[in-house]
Design goal:
Order of helices and strands: HHHHHH
Mean pLDDT: 97
Radius of gyration: 15 Å
Helix content: over 70%
Distance between the termini: 33 Å
Number of helices: 6
Strand content: under 5%
Length: 131
């Protein structure tokens, strides 16, 4: 939050190593750290590395929680964001649709996460229509 993305990256990488050593590589806490690292990498402009992080976090969380869990929605939404940044609008749309479907099962319609997912989906759909 202070803007020192390189220091944040180092902290997340260190935390992930500690969690992997103590909890195992497939633990949901590792997924949270990997997801957060993905956000930093995305902010640094390393979109392919961010995508890999989000995909790893999603794989771990789906194995731990199942396919329709709010944590999975977070991962899918973040993956959609980086796919959007990479220009893969169709895949981004699929991610945002999936995140929205999961979130609406657990949260009230006016929840900020649902609003954010709807907005992201609307942006991608608009871009796909060429507007």
């Amino acid at each position: 939050s202070l803007g020192d993305l390189n220091a944040a990256r180092q902290c997340f990488e260190r935390a992930i190593k500690i969690w992997e050593a103590s909890l195992g590589t497939e633990h949901p806490q590792v997924a949270t750290g990997v997801n957060n690292l993905g956000g930093v990498l995305q902010d640094l402009g390393d979109l392919n590395a961010a995508r890999q992080c989000y995909e790893r976090a999603l794989k771990i969380d789906q194995a731990a929680f199942g396919t329709d869990h709010p944590t999975v929605a977070r991962d899918v939404n973040n993956l959609g964001g980086v796919l959007h940044d990479l220009g893969d609008l169709n895949a981004a749309r699929q991610c945002f649709e999936r995140a929205l479907k999961i979130l609406t099962q657990f949260l009230p319609a006016e929840h900020p996460y649902i609003k954010s997912a709807r907005n992201s989906l609307a942006v991608v759909e608009k871009e796909l229509r060429g507007l």
